Amino acid sequence: xxxxxxxxxxxxxxxxxxxxxxxxxxxxxxxxxxxxxxxxxxxxxxxxxxxxxxxxxxxxxxxxxxxxxxxxxxxxxxxxxxxxxxxxxxxxxxxxxxxxxxxxxxxxxxxxxxxxxxxxxxxxxxxxxxxxxxxxxxxxxxxxxxxxxxxxxxxxxxxxxxxxxxxxxxxxxxxxxxxxxxxxxxxxxxxxxxxxxxxxxxxxxxxxxxxxxxxxxxxxxxxxxxxxxxxxxxxxxxxxxxxxxxxxxxxxxxxxxxxxxxxxxxxxxxxxxxxxxxxxxxxxxxxxxxxxxxxxxxxxxxxxxxxxxxxxxxxxxxxxxxxxxxxxxxxxxxxxxxxxxxxxxxxxxxxxxxxxxxxxxxxxxxxxxxxxxxxxxxxxxxxxxxxxxxxxxxxxxxxxxxxxxxxxxxxxxxxxxxxxxxxx
Length: 424
Prior knowledge:
Elements: H1 16-23, E1 26-29, E2 32-35, H2 58-64, E3 77-78, H3 88-102, H4 110-133, H5 140-162, H6 170-185, H7 189-201, E4 205-207, E5 212-213, H8 236-243, H9 245-268, H10 272-289, H11 295-309, H12 311-315, E6 326-327, H13 328-333, H14 337-344, E7 347-348, H15 355-358, H16 364-369, H17 378-391, E8 398-399, H18 401-418
Parallel strand pairs: 4-6, 7-8
Antiparallel strand pairs: 1-2, 2-3, 4-5
Helix pairs in contact: 3-17, 4-5, 5-6, 5-11, 6-10, 9-11, 9-18
């Protein structure tokens, strides 16, 4: 039996070897097992790593991490039996990722970002000016629209920084995510990141044995956009909500979306840094609202801002809701991770001058395939992703904004018609 540099026994050809590593807390990367037992509580991406214990996590690992992450880690064994069938499309996407890395697609254009920052804070400045100067005029409500636009752009910044797209330094980007997300936008960047990383790693996925579902695609009680989610909604209240989900989807996103996501963040966030940033968000918001003359004006102003910002919640869902769902065990065996991403995403067709409105998320597939890539490179990277899809007979799904909304509503209506309290 061979030993590695730490004196740990490497796997032999015995069929039980892989099972030994599976029984331990190990994940497979590039043909080797890595023991993560002590690392799990400290994983920057959260508990999602547990979903890959005993599985080949090579594709998702390379999507989220630089190769240098493994530089100081020693494998505890070599994978013997668990060898998924080679997916030529997956190989092509892996090679494309290396091309992107070598050709500078991961390089950040800080001048581009400086312009985005300038525009975002200009929106805030206009909002503040309208509130201060025209507090007693109906014009002040235009300030609410500009405030909503500022929140939307800060939400996109939070998304970028929590994906480490800006400095590629996790600690620095995390602090910037807290500033733009928690302090400016009002939604905890840390809490959002934990859920969002699970969503990226296991998009549109369920695992009944672990009572798991993609947390950003499963909305408690409100709606179930795919049959694979039905087992999680076996009660009368869910039945009533799902039966009208195609009617309630847009109103809930627009009118309740902001309040709901802020409530979830507050209920689940325990980080002192995030709690302080949340409190400071409300300090500056309340100070801004204090310039308005009456409580009625304050209520109307904030309601208009929250409703306009609600468009963002539609943007975040229509790229997935009409797409296929998978079971986690299938992803580890029958469906390569890259193929799963292609099957789970819709790109939104827009002219280049509307990319700012979508925050780059109109190119949703390339973002899911290569989440560390800065969004200003998505448009040109998507052309190469489409080419790989064509070469390997994969459907590159794309449509306009209104078509994506229509498809989402059609899917919700289809599920509402067929939903049953006993799907199994």
